[in-house]
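Structure request: PH domain-containing protein, Myodes glareolus.
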Amino acid sequence: MKEVSPYFKNSAGGTSVGWDSPPASPLQRQPSSPGPQPRNLSEAKHISLKMAYVSRRCTPTDPEPRYLEIWAADGQDTLFLRAKDEASARSWAGAIQAQISTFIPWVKDELLALLTATGTAGNQDIKQIGWLTEQVLAVTPCHPMPFWPFDLFSFHPSSLPFCLQLPSGGTAPTLALLTEKELLLYCSLPQTREALSRPARTAPLIATRLVHSGPSKGSVPYDAELSFALRTGTRHGVDTHLFSVESPQELAAWTRQLVDGCHRAAEGVQEVSTACTWNGRPCNLSVHIDKGFTLWAAEPGAARAVLLRQPFEKLQMSSDDGTSLLFLDFGGAEGEIQLDLHSCPKTMVFIIHSFLSAKVTRLGLLA
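Returned structure:
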């Protein structure tokens, strides 16, 4: 193996580095000396493998992928290494990753201890933890699109109701921590209660949807072999994230844990409510995983009268305008009803989807 970190720091991104005749580097302290000098062990670099990040997707682009990128868990130390050939790089990456995996149970125990210290361990069991490579992307809204009925898990990017503009090479290591209710994303391994309680981003599982995993049936403008995409409904719209992993085993583990996590969150929450307006009348919309949809009158001083009640089985079509309106069609004489949620409806849309998906899974229709 050969360390090439100095070249990444001192040369332009994407520049090819020669194996046999490299440019001057900090390791060449005495260019006038005849022959290589013995290396001082005090100058050796050490990176702990405890929850370290290792990837073979680093730059520069190499016709024969020989590069490894290793980050310490705190994000402070980084190494770029180059092997003689692809087989050596693959072997080293596998060996390093295997050693990193042995530390994961210890890391989980340490994080659970931090959660216990904050008094939140009871509902924050850690289901999965690991590094993901996030691909920086931009999402351009296209047009509102119905979300029911549809094939819950056969998505691929060509069928998504948004325009996915993929990155021009921008990636970032992201530490993902999956709990009972949330997906927490960090820039480095949290070492304190404060750091653990302040993730860079949080995605509630009940409002999160796995929309793509692995190779796509359609044509896609990026290498999707070991990638998966998530969408989360928020009060500001839809957040979309594209992640890649290093092995099919990692992809399968994250895919299953995310799908199961969304279903667990739906079964755990059971019911959500939100204020809305129906036909100019202030109401509260309640959505229950078993009881379905209920509209309650919400005028000040008025009795809490039920204005509408429909089970999920009656729902024929749902859609939204991406701004504030939610449309629910239960058929029958009333037809489609229009609810103004007074904010972006995407959170409620995604929660309804999670309830539907969990109910279908209960029936054993999905593996």
